[in-house]
Amino acid sequence: MERIHFISGLPRSGSTLLSGILNQNPAFHANMSSPVASMMNATLEMTGAGSEFYNFFDEAKRMRMAKALINAYYEDVERPIVFDTNRVWTARMHQLVELYDDFKVVCLVRDPAWVMDSFEKIYRKNPFNYSKMFSAGTRMTVYSRCESLLGGTVGMSLTALKEAFYGEYSDKLLLVDYDLLTKFPEKTLKLIYEFLNIDYFSHDFENVEYSHDEFDYTLGVKGLHTVQRKVEFKERRSILPPDLFDKYSEMAFWKDTAGSAASVISPKK
Q1: What is the CATH number of the domain that holds 259?
Q2: pTM of the predicted structure, to 2 decimals
Q3: Per-residue tens of pLDDT for the chain, all 269 residues
Q4: Which helix (H) or strand (E) segment is 263 a member of?
Q5: How many domains is the chain partitioned into structurally?
Q6: At 65, which helix (H) or strand (E)?
């Protein structure tokens, strides 16, 4: 690994699709969410003030260990440019700027109402498989399922992204709207390459392949990380009740770029 960038943003918004596209470039290595961010956080917890080992570590040693962990994880990757994916990276910008001089974070976003809709669609496709996404109490209705997601995966991703979007390192962010990625994949990819300051590679948007069936099986959510072969936008009616759709649609804060230095690829108002 010669250089590292990061993929973050919201779930069900195209990060797996983007990884499948980027992997077509022989210079790139991209995958679904990795354990690197969690491992780094666990290491810092174990060496922090709440640990009995706190006195064995200073700031410089903790930083070296964090960077060494990332480098060791990707040591066997032969491709020079690595994209590590995790929703939490947008809440760790203050750490990443200390570890790497030149990195970017590509954040996939989508109207939060459609994020919820996508989770609900996956849930209903597996009617007799009670996944780990919900508990017995939260899986009862679409309302409780959406509230559970807002208090968990979706809510964490939204607040982490908002932290980075309005933070002091927002110039390192590129937010990419899922709809534009699927409607205009080549134009969108060219803008991503431009943001990364890398020469464009001609991708085949008719033959994108990516799936991680074993990971999805352990969650009990079939098809969670399966990408369709052809990149295309499929318009459909939302299966959320109208009041829920309106409620979550209002949370798309990035549609107003005032107060942020982030770059945004999204439909104009």
Answers
A1: 3.40.50.300
A2: 0.91
A3: 899 999 999 999 999 999 999 999 999 999 989 999 999 999 999 999 988 989 999 999 999 999 999 999 999 999 999 999 999 999 999 999 999 999 999 999 999 999 999 999 999 998 998 888 899 999 999 999 999 999 999 999 999 999 999 999 999 999 999 999 999 999 999 999 999 999 999 999 999 976 655 544 454 555 555 688 899 999 999 999 999 999 999 999 999 999 999 999 998 76
A4: strand 263-265
A5: 1
A6: helix 59-73
Burial class of residue 238 in the structure, from the number of CB atoms within 10 Å of its CB (0-12 exposed, 13-18 middle, 19+ buried):
middle
Rounded-to-10 torsion of CA 135, 136, 139, 141: -150
- For residue 255, what are the domain limits? 3-265
Residue where the block lists tokens 């960038």:
5
Distance, in Å, from the CA atom of 107 to the CA atom of 188, rounded to the nearest integer, reads: 13
The residues, ordered by sequence, that sit 6+ positions from 95 with a Cβ below 8 Å of its Cβ are 40, 66
